[in-house]
Amino acid sequence: MGANSWQEFLQGDEAAFSKLYCGYFNELFAYGLKIGFDEEVCKDAIQDVFYKIFISRKQLTYIRNIESYLLHCLKNRLFDIHNVESKINYINYNDILLEDENSVVEKIIEKESELLLKDSIKQSMSILPPKQRKIIYFHYRLNLSFDEIAALLEMKPDAVKKSAYRALQKMKESRQLKNTLFSFFLSFF
């Protein structure tokens, strides 16, 4: 639904824009509530996101995954609203720590490890069917419960749990196979 409607909208079909809005509203609304914002703020932020998309559609042709893009935009908009409302302009200079060279090197190593882990997870996720990928994303990235995911995907909670378990097993097997192949090829050197 999303990819087709998105492409149609980019080509000027305003009915497709309406489909996108209706199709993603509940998911975006649930996400906004989940990260701690009240209903009215979530609704306003969703309106803002879709308004911005509508007026700048010609610059958005590069977007391939509309769902991820919408979630990212909503999160940013909600935090922008929060920052304006809270007027966060205060910097406590006592909280700023001076870093020595060792901590900088440690941070670089930590960042590199993080990137390698993200790449590994991304590769493991790519072998999953779309529904399992979505369940894993909702549960581990958006911190939605299995009941919340079941409601969003119109599934039973037990089916969501089983699907998540199977997805994790596939990802684990994929990593084990990759590690085995890597070890096998290293034995030749």
Please state the overall shape, judged from the principal axes of the Cα atoms: globular
Biggest sheet, in brief? none
CATH class of the largest domain: Mainly Alpha
Tell me the strand percentage band.
Answer: under 5%
Fill in the keyword field for this structure.
single chain; 189 residues; mainly alpha; Rna Polymerase Sigma Factor, Chain: A; Arc Repressor Mutant, subunit A; 2 domains; 8 helices
At a glance:
The protein is an all-alpha fold.
Structure, explained:
The chain is mainly α. The protein folds into 2 domains: 1-90, Orthogonal Bundle (Rna Polymerase Sigma Factor, Chain: A), CATH 1.10.1740.10; 100-177, Winged helix-like DNA-binding domain superfamily/Winged helix DNA-binding domain (Arc Repressor Mutant, subunit A, Orthogonal Bundle). It is 76% helix and 0% strand. The protein has 8 helices and no strands. It has helices at residues 2-10, 14-34, 39-55, 66-86, 101-126, 130-141, 146-153, 157-186.
Note the topology:
Elements: H1 2-10, H2 14-34, H3 39-55, H4 66-86, H5 101-126, H6 130-141, H7 146-153, H8 157-186
Helix pairs in contact: 1-2, 2-3, 2-4, 3-4, 5-8, 6-8, 7-8
